Amino acid sequence: MRRILATGAALAAVAATCLAVAGGAQASDGDRRNSGPGASAADRQSVDVDGGFQRFLFGDRGSARTFSLRSRTGVWLRVTDTFCKGDRFRVLLDGKDLGQTSEPTKTTCRNGTRVPRQAEPSLAWSSGGWLLPRGEHVVTVVVTRSPFETGAASLRADSSKFAGATLTGEAEVPGPGDNNGKGRLGVVLHPASDTICYGVRTRLIDDVVAGHIHAGRKPIAGPVVVDLQLPPGSPSNAACVAADPTVIDDIAYAPWNFYANVHTEAYPAGAVRGQLVPLY
Fold first, then answer.
1. Which domains does the chain have, with CATH numbers?
2. pLDDT given at position 29
3. What is the 3-state secondary structure (H, E, C) of the chain?
4. Which end of the chain is more exposed for a tag (fewer CB within 10 A), N or C?
5. Do 257 and 128 meet the contact criterion of CB atoms below 8 Å apart?
6. Of 39-48, 86-95, 219-228, 259-268, where does mean pLDDT reach its minimum?
7. Largest CA distance in the chain
8. Rounded Cα gap, residues 215 and 223, in angstroms
9. Rounded distance, CA 230 to CA 122, Å?
């Protein structure tokens, strides 16, 4: 636990760095009532922005839960099943279809339920995330699959749009990476300007030659989707770089489907690597 907390604190420090750069450029249970896009305000569950995951219960296929959301800034909305029985959802914002949560590809899991932070990156649970504009919104979660006709899920909305990665040589694929190397990366997603701002710190590696964000779950080696434009030879850097808006949306949807790595002269194929995770 101490190691997890220390890692989280280190990533938060890097995220704070990239937030500064960008500036220059438990939850309540729901009930099983069904409510659709046209539900009255009294039937809507309020989303507490920056309040963490909020649990809600759902029914059979076609049922829906409706939530009210108000924020002075854009928010990162995340929805995840926690029942692990093949459930899936469609998410609407003010009646507009944002898309479905992910398709579970593992049919078995060790436990039928799991806490949200463990469930959402797993292939056994269905999850998804979307970047929403500021303002007052109605979010509707429609059940598109519910084998047991009941279950539990969670959602959250965060004003910060941070993701981060712990970089190690052992994580490089296909490798070998620099087994002595370590690092931290924090990124902030900016959909309005099609940019990603980041801060990165590395240590115990030789001269840096490049850094990227790649598409690919662990342990896949995937294509470059964002060039971090690291200054050659610098062990740390903070900057904002252009990014394809589709890539930004895809990172918001499932950050664990992407990883960052840093290349050095001794390890031109990659010295250290780490999968992205949300920094809540």
1. 2-22+161-278 (2.60.40), 32-158 (2.60.120.380)
2. 29
3. CHHHHHHHHHHHHHHHHHHHHHHHCCCCCCCCCCCCCCCCHHHCEECCCCCCCEEEEECCCCCEEEEEEEECCCEEEEEEECCCCCCEEEEEECCEEEEECCCCCCCCCCCCCCCHHHHCCCCCCCEEEEEECCEEEEEEEEEEECCCCCEEEEEEEECCCEEEEEEECCCCCCCCCCCCCEEEEEEEEECCCCEEEEEEEEECCCCEEEEEEEECCCCCCCCEEEECCCCCCCCEEEEEEECCHHHHHHHHHCHHHEEEEEEECCCCCCCEEEECEECC
4. N
5. no
6. 39-48
7. 62
8. 6
9. 31
What integer pLDDT is reported at residue 108 of this predicted model?
67
Using CA atoms, how far residue 218 sits from 122, 215, 223, 274, in Å, is 11, 10, 13, 9
CB atoms within 10 A of CB 97: 11
Q: Determine the average pLDDT of the residues in 257-277.
A: 97
pLDDT for the residue 164: 98
CB 14 within 8 Å of CB 199: yes
pLDDT for the residue numbered 67: 98
CA atoms of 189 and 22, how far apart (whole Å)? 9
Look at residue 5 in the predicted model and tell me its pLDDT.
Answer: 35
- Which of 266, 262, 264, 261 is closest to 276 using CA atoms? 261
Q: Rounded to an integer, what distance in angstroms lies between the CA atom of residue 33 and that of residue 101?
A: 21
Higher-confidence residue of 44 and 6: namely 44
Strands 224-227 and 236-242 come out as unpaired
8 Å CB contact between 71 and 134: yes
